[in-house]
Write a structure and sequence with these properties.
alpha/beta; 14 strands
C-alpha cells in the first residue's frame, strides 16, 4: 500500500493495485477566496499542488469524504474525467450526478469496489451548532486481504464516532485531518494536536498519518506545531507528518 499526500487532504492511495484519488482540491494557489470568519484573509489554497496527474491514466477512482470546496473544488469538477468512478456519501450523490459525473457510487454502509471493502464511518466536523452546519461528513475504512487496513477519518474532531471506529476495526493505518481548522467563534472543526494524541492513545498498535495542514487559511496549527506536541507527549514515533508530494509505503 502507498499513500501520497498531494496537498491538504488530497491523497493518492494505492491499494489492491488500484489508485484512488481522495478529496481532490486541484486549483492553483490563491484561486479561491479565504474561508470567511477566520483569523486571517489569505487566499486559498495557500500553496500550489505538488504533483500534476494525468487523471485518465494515473487514477482508477475517486473517494470523497464530503464536497466542501477544500476537498472538492471547481478545478476538480473541471479536470476530473466524468467517466471515472466516484465513491461518496449518499448525501452527495445527486450533486455529483448533476455536475455530469457518470459513475457515482454512494456508500450508505459498505461497498466492495475492485476487490476493496469500503466501510463508511461517521464523524463530527466540529461541535454544537457549527457541527450541525458543517455536516454531513464521512470517513472510510478500506480493507483488502494481505494489506494493512486503512481508516481515512475525514474532516472530524476526535469524537465518539471516531473512537468507535478505532475500537471496532482496529485499523493498521489511520489518516487524520489535523491543522485545528476553526473560525473566529467556536471550537476547532478538524483535529488539533491534542486530538491526534488521543488517536494515538486509543489505537496504540496503529500508525497515524497526519495531513490537512498549511494549505487553507483557517487551519491554524502547522506541521511544526503538531510535531512539537507529539514529541512532548512521547508519541512522535507513531505519527507520519508527510510533506506535500511525499510518498509513504506500507
Amino acid at each position: 500500500m502507498k499513500v501520497q499526500l498531494l496537498r491538504h487532504a488530497t491523497l493518492l492511495v494505492t491499494i489492491n493495485g488500484k489508485k484512488i484519488l481522495v478529496d481532490p482540491m486541484l486549483g492553483s494557489a490563491g484561486v479561491m477566496p479565504p474561508i470567511g470568519n477566520s483569523p486571517n484573509s489569505y487566499r486559498n489554497p495557500l500553496v500550489e499542488l505538488s504533483i500534476q496527474l494525468d487523471f485518465q491514466q494515473d487514477i482508477d477512482g475517486i473517494l470523497l469524504t464530503h464536497t466542501h470546496r477544500d476537498h472538492f473544488d471547481d478545478a476538480a469538477v473541471d479536470q476530473l474525467p466524468p467517466n471515472k468512478p466516484i465513491l461518496c456519501q449518499p448525501e452527495d450523490e445527486e450533486k455529483l450526478k448533476n455536475l455530469g459525473f457518470l459513475k457515482v457510487y454512494p456508500i450508505s454502509d459498505k461497498l466492495c469496489w475492485e476487490g476493496i471493502i469500503i466501510q463508511r464511518t461517521g464523524g463530527r466536523h466540529g461541535t454544537g451548532e457549527i457541527a450541525v452546519q458543517m455536516a454531513p461528513v464521512s470517513g472510510y475504512v478500506l480493507q483488502v486481504e494481505g494489506e494493512p487496513s486503512l481508516y481515512i477519518a475525514g474532516d472530524s474532531i476526535y469524537c465518539e464516532e471516531v473512537s468507535s471506529v478505532l475500537s471496532i476495526y482496529q485499523p493498521s493505518l489511520i489518516i487524520v485531518n489535523a491543522g485545528g481548522a476553526r473560525f473566529n467563534v467556536g471550537d476547532p472543526i478538524t483535529m488539533t494536536a491534542e486530538d491526534v494524541v488521543k488517536v494515538c492513545r486509543k489505537a496504540p498498535k496503529a500508525q497515524i498519518i497526519a495531513v490537512h495542514m498549511e494549505a487553507i487559511n483557517h487551519c491554524l496549527e502547522s506541521r511544526a506545531d503538531l510535531c512539537i506536541h507529539l514529541k512532548q507527549e512521547g508519541v512522535m514515533n507513531r505519527v507520519f507528518i508527510p510533506m506535500d508530494g511525499e510518498v509513504l509505503t506500507f
